[in-house]
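Anyone able to model this chain together with nicotinamide-adenine-dinucleotide?
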Amino acid sequence: MTTVGHLINGEMRTDAQRTQDVFNPSTGTVSKQVALAEKATVEEAIAAAQAAYPEWRNTPPAKRARVMFRFKELLEQNSDRIISLIGEEHGKISHDAAGELQRGIENVEYACYAPELLKGEHSKNVGPAIDSWSEMQPLGVVVGITPFNFPAMVPLWMYPMAIVCGNCFVLKPSERDPSSTMLIAELLHEAGLPAGVLNVVNGDKEAVDTLLTDERIKAVSFVGSTPIAEYIYTTANANGKRCQALGGAKNHAIVMPDADMDNAVNQLLGAAFGSSGERCMALSVAVAVGDQAADTLVSKMKEAMGPLKVGAYSDSSNDFGPVITKAHQDKVVGYINSAEEQGATVVVDGRNPQVEGHENGFFVGGTLIDQVTPEMRSYKEEIFGPVLQVVRVESMQEAMDLIDAHEYGNGTCIFTRDGEAARYFSDNINVGMVGINVPLPVPVSYHSFGGWKRSLFGDLHAYGPDSVRFYTKRKTVTQRWPSAGVREGAQFAFPS
Ligand code: NAD
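re: yes, here you go
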């Protein structure tokens, strides 16, 4: 059986003392093994990055960007291979995996723009014959730790920009679906990246803890669940590192009584059930304002969910695929059970989907739950499955208070025809990414991505302009070239 290894100093390595099963969630069978890096292997990767750094740092930004131009072309040429690896190990249907890859490629396109982004600021004549400028210097060796749900896109949020800014990188991807991530890293080397600039180590907590405590690492980007994000952030900070740690979510959509209900239902379908709800921007709660809007929404959703097709990644007519593991399937079903036990109404029940020919796959069908209240466990916690819960409120203010009171603040959306209400909502809601009649307001690559509250630990968001700030440190130089023969006497007052 194939073992997915590590990419260290430009070489694929499959030596491993510990390994873990990688599943095909559509069939429920083990398809590969993944190596789990020991401390010593991670340290080799860090050393390779450290050794590559001096030369890479001094490579002109335009040359660094040229590698990214070639990388983008290779990603496009190899898209079918990448999409099929994502499907095999994550379970995403090809149309969804293609969307993920495209979003990743857009981050590479933005990284191509680095020479422009790194120009810095210049002021002439800040004093007599004095000029001043600020430049952005790379940090050194930086790290990315990424989740299973976007094995192609989330690493591409991180290392293209980090590398093009002059840093060297160690990536620790999710051990649950590593193959597309590894293929993409190999393509970057095929594009001309020097050995050691990007290293990929597969692994678990041992690998992560080595990265978090090694003093050669200057910054850590993390995307994953909130408890781990908090641990990464506090540990990285305690070890003197810059850190951005993006966590989990519970994204609410307010459905106003004046909304175009058919449009809202269509948008909710894709945003709640696409990718089996395993997206940090998935809409998992619909907050209906007024009972009439709630009744209409629930009955239209129920009808629209009838033809939803859950099934294997290999059939592109399916709407969404399995969840990632058997344990996660059980967890999602457990949340549906708990909502029912706590008094909610399961309107469409996806607990026992029949997927012919794939009886052992980790499937959960689209599920709709009405009469959910904020005290319920299924409301408080992130389910990360194809489950849409409906909470009924009396007013828009009540809906906004509900959203503001939730622990998470990643994304949210309002469906309405009222511009004034939408403007008030987007201005005042305590959430980092807001959609107005847009269910998945994932910012494009030249804006930045990040939630508020316990959906993000740190100050700077992922990708876009914030990523240039995250992966560089500012240096400001003040320079004087006095005319020949002009000498100033000692000044004891503060220079002004
Ligand atoms: P996870 O937190 O289990 O794992 C993320 C990474 O952390 C993996 O690389 C994993 O190996 C590592 N890790 C896991 N446990 C660890 C531990 N105890 N110590 C050190 N490292 C550890 O997340 P996941 O299940 O892979 O991904 C799903 C989660 O990610 C969801 O909560 C989802 O909302 C979140 N997510 C957030 C965003 C965002 O942008 N906010 C984007 C995608 C996913």
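The chain has a mean pLDDT of 97.
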